[in-house]
């Protein structure tokens, strides 16, 4: 059964020339599940991994391999093991027994279940979430040094970090595309796996509001 939980965060201002110690609070309401939460989150992660698989692997069976249909040698009298076709999986160049064929690896998960898993993952990661404000202000051109400085004002970027923006921003994306251990997601395209893998999660304030509207029913 889903439970309603409210998490309060202190918003940190990261713009240059502002007092980073001046903080205010914002809240995030989440529907979470405590019993069997690992099972639900596992289903969501497996579903995400399966959706990323192309499923295009294909091998030829003995009926599809192009080879002679003639019996290689007579049944008896040669001293060789009996053989009826060069298409046999036992032969080099023959067909493949039980090989892969194109297929879909998708597994069904209900929309409500997925949202519940995502919100539960966010709740379980609440201690590693930092909410920031004024992050994009003044970034009119790509500038890696400037953007990194704003992030390093509030968190150590030596461990895997997830930055969540409200919407795509070309200047931020170009500034951070070569930064190792830093991933960027948007508030309407979150996924469970990246949230679980991140050691630190930075959420821009307006993205937090959009997360509330998008995933909290």
From TrEMBL:
Residues 47-60, 77-90 have a biased composition (Polar residues). InterPro entries: Ribosomal_uL4, Ribosomal_uL4-like, Ribosomal_uL4_dom_sf. One of its GO terms (biological process) is translation. One of its GO terms (cellular component) is ribosome. Keywords: Chloroplast, Plastid, Ribonucleoprotein, Ribosomal protein, RNA-binding, rRNA-binding. One of its GO terms (molecular function) is rRNA binding. PANTHER family: 50S RIBOSOMAL PROTEIN L4 (PTHR10746), LARGE RIBOSOMAL SUBUNIT PROTEIN UL4C (PTHR10746:SF17). Probably binds the 23S rRNA. Belongs to the universal ribosomal protein uL4 family. This is Large ribosomal subunit protein uL4c. It comes from Chroomonas mesostigmatica CCMP1168. The lineage of its organism: Eukaryota, Cryptophyceae, Pyrenomonadales, Chroomonadaceae, Chroomonas.
């Amino acid at each position: 059964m889903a439970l309603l939980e409210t998490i309060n965060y202190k918003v940190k201002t990261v713009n240059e020339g502002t007092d980073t110690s001046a903080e205010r609070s914002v809240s995030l309401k989440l529907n979470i599940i405590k019993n069997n939460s690992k099972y639900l989150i596992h289903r969501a992660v497996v579903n995400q991994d399966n959706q990323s698989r192309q499923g295009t692997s294909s091998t030829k069976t003995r009926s599809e391999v192009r080879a002679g249909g003639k019996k290689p040698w007579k049944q008896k009298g040669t001293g060789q093991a009996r053989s009826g076709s060069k298409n046999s999986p036992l032969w080099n160049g023959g067909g493949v027994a039980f090989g892969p064929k194109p297929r879909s690896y998708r597994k069904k998960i209900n929309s409500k279940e997925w949202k519940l898993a995502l919100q539960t993952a966010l709740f379980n990661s609440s201690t590693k979430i930092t909410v920031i404000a004024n992050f994009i202000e003044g970034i009119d051109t790509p500038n890696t040094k400037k953007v990194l400085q704003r992030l390093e004002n509030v968190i150590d970027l030596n461990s895997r970090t997830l930055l969540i923006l409200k919407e795509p921003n070309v200047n931020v994306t170009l500034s951070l595309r070569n930064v190792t251990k830093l991933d960027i997601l948007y508030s309407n395209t979150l996924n469970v796996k990246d949230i679980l893998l991140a050691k630190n999660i930075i959420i821009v304030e307006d993205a937090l509001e959009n997360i509330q509207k998008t995933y909290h029913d």
